Structure to design on (669 residues):
């Protein structure tokens, strides 16, 4: 039964990715809209709205990019590839996936280094405007002598998506590499950009 | 010159089938590691700052989202009905109405492929039914669809504004006259072709139909009033306008047009229902279903579609920003600028070169990524030569339009081939005659700056140029 277990896992991973992407985008729109409403209806300003939206934005793209690789929705140039023989295509695809793996490993390392700086050495650095609710802090254990440590959300929380997103991306590219090696996938990019842009219903 | 090596690396990777974003990112990172003492952590920081530090880019996901709600089908149908009612009765009317519908949809959506899909799906089959050839239908829509990025709102304009720090509002305004002009030129071209080929006209439907269709389409078209009115009235920033537009589009799609969500396909007013009663009933329905509509599977689908498109586009832009970072750090724009000025190029020659670079580059690159890279290269030169930055932006957008309908990476070609169920090659052939019109249009835009600068300058005052 390993196959069934695997496809079930695949289903749930896919579900998490899709819901995650939808939620992040929906929240971005909602927070920005709420700020407009606050300004015109309640004559006040949601100070944290802008910064929150930019972080959600970064999370959306860095979290979602691995999903895009999985559904093979990356834009690229297939003009030359289409004229090559299948063996030559395979070699190109292998070189291409190596390039992608290199990119991801480099950024994973860079992302980790950047994040760990904020997580360990500079963990006192806070974001500018986003408050950190006390109950959440006590839940996460950020309490000292019964007092919450932070006033605002510390920077290492939003930045964590850099290494996490790149790690997810690395997994997807490794899977793609295996599929190309086995001959199950022909190219790394969306061969017909139609599907990538819009799925006509 | 190492920079030449950098661009060669990008192009080689692209041709090998590496995704555009990775080709840009990997080449730049390698260059940075070899050529300067930047660390990988600082590259990662640049990547993150693409989102954290560019408030303007935030408008893109919202415009995409609004267009994703509006692409559920019903809006396009209503716009097309209105277009046919107004211009369908002249010769070649359905094709002209198709262009008109593309222009209207372009005012709701910031992307060309989305415009082709929304309008083309319906109009092309309609044209075939009344006797147009498939080539004619596909060629017209493929070209008219490019107006999606010229008529505001436009994602490509937002990217240009973010890359060069000009105002998004000005760019949007600047696109109005060129957008109308391009549409008009296409329509005239179609009318002449229709006279020669003796193409059919639709029956005149009467003013009543125009009024009814206008009211019906008006709910959707009000979106452009929110966006442009909101920005110029100083009510919203462009980003906020985009977010409000997406919320508005969500409400319209769910509760007025009912193309999606829990009330899908239920009429606003039942047969023989009292007006007042229907009014009250619909408000009650709104409050009852507002929250369920947010969690409806249809809504999840729209969000997901918008999200995927945003992710793809922004990952390219973020990596293009790393390349831009390399270029500015190496002072490439300044070098090119002084070389060009030393060679004695005037503004005319300069614009020809810009057009050539963009036309060639546009055939290999996604428009937004290309703009992020090319804009900072040519912007300082343009300023020194006294070219209006807004004018330069419109030239770039029109070049991108042409890039979208020229192989090998013409996005509109691929989308049209999917919509019209033709091979890409035959779409290329079908689109070519109309391409001539867009090329003439490009020359006009390039050498008549007034077309782009008149509205923004008269509404917002002359542009103040700041060189950073």
């Amino acid at each position: 039964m390993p196959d069934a277990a695997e496809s079930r896992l695949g289903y749930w991973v896919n579900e998490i990715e899709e819901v995650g992407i939808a939620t992040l985008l929906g929240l971005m729109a909602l927070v920005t809209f709420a700020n407009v409403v606050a300004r015109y209806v309640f004559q006040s300003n949601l100070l944290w709205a802008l910064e929150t939206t930019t972080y959600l934005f970064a999370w959306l793209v860095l979290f979602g990019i691995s999903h895009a690789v999985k559904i093979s929705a990356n834009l690229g140039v297939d003009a030359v590839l289409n004229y090559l023989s299948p063996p030559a295509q395979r070699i190109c695809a292998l070189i291409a996936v190596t390039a992608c793996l290199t990119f991801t490993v480099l950024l994973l390392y860079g992302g980790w280094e950047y994040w760990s700086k904020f997580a360990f050495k500079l963990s006192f650095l806070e974001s500018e405007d986003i408050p950190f609710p006390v109950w959440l802090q006590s839940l996460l254990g950020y309490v000292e002598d019964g007092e919450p440590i932070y006033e605002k959300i510390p920077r290492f929380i939003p930045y964590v998506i850099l290494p996490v997103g790149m790690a997810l991306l690395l997994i997807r590219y490794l899977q793609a590499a295996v599929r190309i090696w086995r001959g199950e996938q022909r190219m790394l990019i969306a061969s017909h950009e139609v599907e990538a842009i819009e799925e006509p219903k | 010159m190492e920079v030449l090596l950098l661009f060669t690396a990008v192009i080689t990777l692209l041709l090998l089938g590496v995704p555009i974003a990775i080709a840009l990112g990997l080449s730049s990172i390698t260059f940075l590691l070899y050529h300067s003492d930047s660390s990988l952590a600082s590259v990662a920081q640049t990547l993150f700052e693409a989102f954290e530090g560019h408030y303007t880019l935030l408008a893109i996901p919202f415009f995409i989202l609004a267009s994703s709600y509006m692409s559920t089908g019903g809006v396009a149908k209503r716009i097309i009905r209105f277009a046919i009612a107004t211009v369908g009765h002249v010769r070649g009317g359905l094709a002209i109405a198709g262009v008109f519908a593309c222009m209207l949809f372009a005012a709701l959506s910031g992307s060309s492929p989305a415009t082709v899909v929304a309008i083309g799906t319906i109009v092309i089959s309609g044209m075939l039914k009344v006797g147009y050839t498939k080539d004619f239908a596909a060629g017209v829509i493929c070209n008219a669809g490019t107006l999606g990025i010229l008529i505001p709102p436009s994602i490509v304009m937002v990217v240009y504004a973010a890359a060069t720090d000009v105002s998004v509002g000005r760019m949007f305004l600047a696109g109005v006259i060129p957008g109308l002009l391009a549409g008009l030129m296409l329509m005239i071209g179609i009318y002449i072709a229709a006279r020669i080929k003796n193409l059919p006209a639709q029956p005149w439907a009467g003013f009543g139909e125009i009024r009814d269709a206008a009211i019906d389409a008006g709910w959707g078209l009000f979106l452009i009033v929110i966006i442009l009115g909101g920005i110029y009235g100083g009510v919203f920033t462009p980003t906020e306008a985009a977010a409000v537009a997406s919320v508005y589009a969500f409400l319209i799609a769910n509760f007025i047009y009912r193309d999606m969500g829990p009330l899908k396909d239920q009429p606003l007013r039942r047969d023989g229902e009292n007006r007042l009663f229907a009014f009250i009933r619909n408000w009650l329905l709104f409050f009852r279903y507002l929250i369920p509509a947010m969690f409806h599977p249809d809504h999840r689908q729209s969000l997901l579609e918008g999200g995927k498109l945003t992710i793809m586009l922004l990952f390219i832009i973020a990596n293009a920003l790393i390349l831009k970072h390399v270029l500015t750090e190496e002072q490439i724009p300044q070098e090119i600028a002084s070389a060009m000025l030393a060679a004695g190029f005037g503004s005319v020659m300069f614009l020809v070169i810009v057009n050539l670079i963009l036309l060639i580059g546009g055939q290999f690159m996604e428009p937004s990524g290309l703009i992020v890279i090319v804009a900072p290269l040519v912007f300082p030169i343009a300023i020194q030569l006294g070219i209006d930055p807004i004018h330069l932006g419109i030239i770039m957008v029109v070049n991108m339009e042409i890039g979208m309908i020229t192989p090998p990476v013409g996005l509109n070609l691929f989308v049209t081939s999917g919509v019209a169920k033709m091979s890409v090659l035959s779409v290329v052939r079908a689109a070519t005659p109309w391409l001539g019109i867009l090329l003439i249009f490009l020359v006009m835009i390039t050498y008549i700056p007034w077309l782009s600068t008149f509205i923004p300058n008269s509404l917002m005052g002359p542009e103040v140029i700041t060189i950073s």
Observations:
- Residues 60 and 165 of chain B are 16 Å apart (CA to CA).
